[in-house]
Design a protein that fits this description.
The structure is a homodimer of 396-residue chains. Chain A has 396 residues and is α/β, with parallel strands linked by helices. In chain A, 42% of the residues lie in helices and 15% in strands. Chain A is globular and about 60 Å long.
Chain lengths: 396, 396
């Protein structure tokens, strides 16, 4: 049989970076291309204790169907945490748990956008979200990122040009792939523009709690006085990604629509995982866990940056993130980025070519992404040495 | 802010049956309206043993990101089980695990159907699947169900009329909501028509393993010699629904598209739950578990049917299922079904009005659905007594 797939799925083309990415699973490859949280930060022992307790004392609740909105005690816990962070009114109906932050972004898109509607995002931005938006036939417009976040002038120009814009999608904290953090001034600016052009903001914050340097910046959601910000959070980076537990907080009119879409997608999120997260947040010292976790990432990031300083050609510029998992590197303009990445993987270091993260994969970019959470210290040192040597051979 | 939701989501209207359904959570209501598997059938002790073992011995694998296709050993196990049931070639790339069978149906729809394309289904059919198809703006055509399954003449007529049909969606075993089972002759007929009109069959089989009477009938998938059947399975009814683990088996060209859509939806299914299912299937006596489970449902179904025979007006006709969770009742034509259901819930028995399951909710139907897996024996007896009394008052 010859299959006739839907347009939206046919348009999701196999990525040009697949060829490089397929090497990244090989054990001999140094995994700078990954995005996995550091496994030494997983609360494995506590997860065992908690699941033992749940499945001994309350197994039916963990195994039976539950409501689509999510495990109520976890939603209460999320609300309390958001309220303590200044994130708006603590109403339980403003929160739904999702199967990872990814599902929060996907369903927000499904709820608001028709095929052909415009979604404006940072460029570069997270490939998983971009593909999710593409899978609904959405028109994507990417706006350049400055060091302190999205370029507000270009954002306004895009809002003027694209009258059918429904959503501005941003990752204000330690953005994937750049590691950049949006300044509070710019957060206010994005919110003001969203208001002026009457669009919704989709604020994706998977990395906000892994700030290991500098001061916290309030989320855009804290500015939201007319219910236009959808805030997406995740436990993937602060507890464990295999659990697939995230959440969305938004005005309940929006949450109700997301509930309808989630119900027809997966009914509800795995309930044992939701109970596990709730117990770990409440019955253990979660703040101490976060401190430990930040210490791990601070160390890894510092190590990678110092090895970069030691080894890389000065013509290769990188960001210096204060949190998250990623460093963004920019090659000299004249360089063929894809050629550079291929050479790196031939020498057993995998990085992600920058065009994975831009709207038009064929657009020229001279950047690539490096991850510091997955490699061991030894791999960080060795990998930077190899890329450093390559960069010096090519540019110095 | 006034929200402008997408057409596909705006069109998902709050159901006319919501008013009745909201009573069903009340503890004093006898839950004939539910669809929950019997909790006494959950392998709670084994789940505790298995998660203890996984999280003690191999916690990182259970907590880290995994591949979208699913936990490889579970996919191997699923393939072996399908092969032993005659379900086509045992290639690992023909299987993906999903977050429940619901996600399998949803993603199959997303992969094949553009807005406005036609999907033909049984009428009545499972509301969760229907709403999932509606959420993609699909044109639904419902075909009448006879006692041995879909009406093949009407199916062919619909295929002739609706040239843009992409999928025929069927639940051959103990269909939700009717409990009816499609004969092998009809399965062959559906497959032949799919071939003649070159469409895909989406075969949803959540209940196939809870046959408690009669002989197994081979799935449509076993007839598939040209790769047009997408088979959706689930562990919700045979292990536990809270885990949200199901699977799709189809030719790998289709699976690859489903993988792309799943990746942007929830990245992968909760990994601990997948490991749990795999261990329960392999390290325990799963066949003995199934026998126990079938015995529970056989008992409950028999009890409900004998109480129906004892109490109901003879003008109220019901199906007599050989498996699954549901019995379908038909009132006399002259009766106002919604009025009957409202009276039943006033007397503390909730059933699901039949229009929940038909394509056009406003179409007249004189049926309702009763579930026998959730109520206790006492509730089954009491509930049938109440509905019986009501039916005799109204019809005799």
């Amino acid at each position: 049989m010859n299959y006739s797939f839907s347009n939206k799925v046919s348009n999701l083309k196999p990525s040009a970076i697949r060829e490089i990415m397929k090497y990244t699973a090989l054990p001999e490859i140094i995994p700078f291309a990954a995005g996995n949280p550091a496994p030494e930060a997983f609360p494995a022992k506590q997860a065992e204790e908690i699941t033992h307790k749940i499945l001994s004392e309350n197994p039916i609740a963990a195994l039976q169907y539950n409501i689509t909105e999510g495990y109520t005690p976890l939603r209460e816990t999320i609300k309390k945490r958001l309220a303590s962070q200044g994130c708006f009114n603590p109403d339980i109906d403003d929160v739904i748990t999702t199967s990872g932050g990814q599902q929060g972004n996907e369903l927000s898109c499904k709820v608001f956008l028709n095929e052909g509607d415009t979604l404006i995002c940072e460029s570069p931005s997270f490939i998983g979200s971009l593909n999710s938006f593409r899978s609904y036939g959405v028109h994507l417009v990417g706006i350049e990122l400055e060091d302190d976040g999205i370029d507000l002038n270009k954002l306004e120009a895009a809002l003027k040009t694209n009258k059918n814009t429904k959503i501005i999608y941003v990752i204000p904290n330690f953005q994937n792939p750049t590691g950049k953090c949006m300044s509070f001034e710019k957060r206010k600016g994005v919110y003001a523009l969203a208001k002026k052009y009457d669009v919704v903001i989709l604020e994706d914050n998977p990395y906000g709690e892994i700030r290991f340097e500098g001061e916290n910046i309030p989320s855009i959601k804290t500015l939201d006085n007319d219910g236009r910000v959808i805030y997406v959070g995740s436990f993937s980076k602060v507890i464990a990604p295999g659990l697939r537990v995230g959440f969305v907080s938004a005005p309940k009119d929006i949450i109700q629509k997301i509930v309808v879409c989630k119900q027809v997608s997966d009914v509800h999120t795995n309930i044992l995982a939701q109970m596990l997260c709730n117990s770990f947040l409440n019955d253990y010292d979660f703040e101490a866990h976060l401190l430990k976790l930040r210490e791990i990432y601070r160390h890894k990031c510092k190590l990678m940056l110092s090895e970069i300083d030691k080894n890389f050609s000065k013509k290769l510029i990188t960001t210096r993130p204060q949190g998250g998992l990623f460093i963004w590197a920019t090659l000299p303009d004249s360089c063929d980025m894809m050629d550079f990445c291929k050479k790196a993987v031939e020498r057993k270091v995998a990085v992600v070519p920058g065009n994975a993260f831009i709207i038009d994969e064929n657009e020229k970019t001279s950047c690539f992404r490096m991850n510091f959470s997955t490699p061991t210290d030894e791999q960080l040192i060795k990998g930077c040495e190899i890329i450093g040597k390559l960069s010096k051979e090519m540019f110095d």
